[in-house]
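Form 7-S
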Amino acid sequence: MGTGKWWDALRLIICVVGCQLAGIVGSVFTVKSISTWYDALQKPSFTPPNWLFGPAWIMLYLLMAIAAFLLWRRGLSDRQIGLALVTFLVQLVLNALWSVIFFGLQSPFGAVIVIVGLWVAILFTIIRFFRISIAAGALLLPYILWVSFAAALNASIWLLNPQA
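Output:
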């Protein structure tokens, strides 16, 4: 493997680890509340089983990591790539923050505000990524679809549990 391939492998590993770490941060707050506070909430009929969330997020973080890698491997000297990756990092922070607000602070309303911001940040990220790489932009489409679903679920939980 040449130097370029080693560097690509390292960048991919950094992207995967970075994205999965965002998920781990979120899960620290989630795990504590699932069997207590979250289970006690009224939830809409379209709520998936709890076991589905972990595998779904692991896969989404993997797709996000590959998308970020596809841009990073083109180099950081291009201003558009730099802006796209900064936008990506902003949405990744908002992603982790949502779990802190929803599960950690047990605030469905606060989480609605965060998830709306997250959705907008993902949309901007997708637009920026598509301008640079169709594959990278396409890899983020399942993510925005899942977050759209999660936003509807979050808003429904807030409406069903005004005291929460």
